[in-house]
Each structure stands twice: as structure tokens, then as C-alpha cells.
Amino acid sequence: MSATIDPDTAWDAFSCRDRTFDGRFVVAVRSTHIYCKPSCAARRPRREHVAFLPDAAAARAAGYRACRRCLPDAVARDRAAVVAAAALLGGDAAPPLAALAAAVEYAPHHFHRLFHRLTGVTPAAYARTCRADRVLAALRGAGNVTAAIYAAGYAAPSRFYADATRLGMTPHAAATGGAGETLYWTRCATSLGPLLLAATRRGWSRFAFDEDAPDLRAAFPAATLLPGDAALCARAATLVAQAAAVPVDTTLPSPVRRIAFRTLLHAAPNPG
Ligand SMILES: [Zn+2]
């Protein structure tokens, strides 16, 4: 939400009904005294008849009424529901979709679409990234695979092994600090901060914001670490660009957006 939205940017977003701008400003139509979301499906008024205001409260204070078609007041509620759901998905026992939607008082199908539209990923994919983070932490803490499965809250080993494929190494190797593994790493700038990407010969192993080589060393103390070659750096840059191109609600809290971004990175094919 910006009080200083550039009018040309706002007009462009309004003109093409760009949903990613919903919640960042509202469009007040002087001729009808109604305010809308940027994505409202209604016919576009002439530009000289609209004003771009920071939010619904500002529009109401200026005497405008909410559009009954696009329901601009629902944007804040939608965002709050997605943030609340993200917290549940990051917890020890991520609820299935029906329970998740019920917890934030939405219908399951509608909430699934809403979550995907705002974060760029599904609730299940988001939950998987949170679980995979716990897998590595549990492996490092437990020192062996069987103990880690239960420490990470898994009822069955099969799901644990499925999530552990993201490590780019066997769970046993991760539990022993990456012994016998070589990690090739690089860093890329993103709109969410500097990102470290590391891969083994099996595939991507780690995507971590605000990390540098010493942090990678702490995560895998027994592994060999080497700077990635030009090919790896190019693949990393392509991967980051693909994830950055997915439309998301940029007003979501940064921690939620970072998990969603790493989820998008994991969704891409491995470097092989
Ligand atoms: Zn509208």
C-alpha cells in the first residue's frame, strides 16, 4: 500500500486490470462517487474522472462508496487470511486445505485460488517448503535419519524421504554435515534480498536468503564447497528470473514472500 503511487503506473495497472496491484491503491471515480480495486471488471471511466488513493479508508474519508462489483474492502481481509494461513502452513502440523480454509473462514476452492493468486504458489507447495526446512534442521540436530524423521514431526518415513529430495543429497549425507558431497554455490540479487543458491551434482540443494559462504559452511560443515562455474551461475540467474516473473502480492510480509519465492525456485527443474 503506497501513499505515493505513481499516477501513470496506477493508470496502466487499472487499464489492464492488473490484479497484482489490488491492495496497493484504490481507484476513486469522481463521476459515480464509487471506488474500485485496480482489477475491477467494470467499464473504464475516462482518466480525468478518476483519482488514485492509497486505500479504501482514504476513499471513504473522501466521500466515495465501495463498488458492489469488485468489493474493494475485501482486499485487506483476503490478505490477512493468506498471512494467517501461511503461519498455519509453517507450523508443525500444516492443516489440509479444508481445515486451512475453515480456519480463515473461506470456502476451500476459493481460498486455494486466493492463496495462489497472492503468493504465486499453492498452500500445499508452501507447506512443503516449510517442512523441508525442518527436515534439514532435524537432520543436523539428530545426527541420524531415523531420529530426524520423528524430530521433524513426520508420521511416516515415505513423506520424509520425498521432502528430503530437496537436499540434493541423501538424508544420511545431510545428517553428517554433507560428508562426501561437493556443493557448488552462487549468489543472486532479488527484490527480496540477496539469495544464495547451492547445488550438488544431483541438483539444487539450498536456496537461502541473506546467506553467504560461511552460512553454507555452517549448514554443511563436512562438505566441500566450491564457487559455481559460469554454467551454474547462468542457471541460477535464469531460475531466479523465472521465479521473479510470477505475479504476487508485493504487500504481503517479506517472510511469507521469501518462502513463496523459494517454493517457486524448487518448482523449477533441477540443473542436472
Ligand atoms: Zn469496482
Short description:
Its EC number is 2.1.1.63. This protein has 272 residues and is α/β, with parallel strands linked by helices. The chain contains 12 helices and 8 strands.
Secondary-structure blueprint:
Layout: H1 7-15, E1 26-29, E2 34-36, E3 50-53, H2 56-61, E4 65-66, H3 74-89, H4 97-103, H5 108-119, H6 123-142, H7 145-151, H8 157-164, H9 171-175, E5 182-188, E6 195-200, E7 203-209, H10 213-219, E8 224-227, H11 230-244, H12 254-267
Parallel strand pairs: 2-4, 5-8
Antiparallel strand pairs: 1-2, 1-3, 5-6, 6-7
Helix pairs in contact: 6-7, 6-12, 11-12
Walk me through the structure:
With 272 residues, the chain is of the alpha/beta class. It folds into two domains: 7-66, 3-Layer(aba) Sandwich (DNA Methylphosphotriester Repair Domain), CATH 3.40.10.10; 123-267, no CATH class. The chain is built from twelve helices and eight strands. The strands form two sheets. It has a four-stranded mixed beta sheet. A hairpin with a 6-residue loop joins strand 5 and strand 6. Helix 6 crosses helix 12 (254-267). It is elongated, with a radius of gyration of 22 Å. It binds zinc ion. The site of zinc ion (ZN) has 6 residues, from loops.
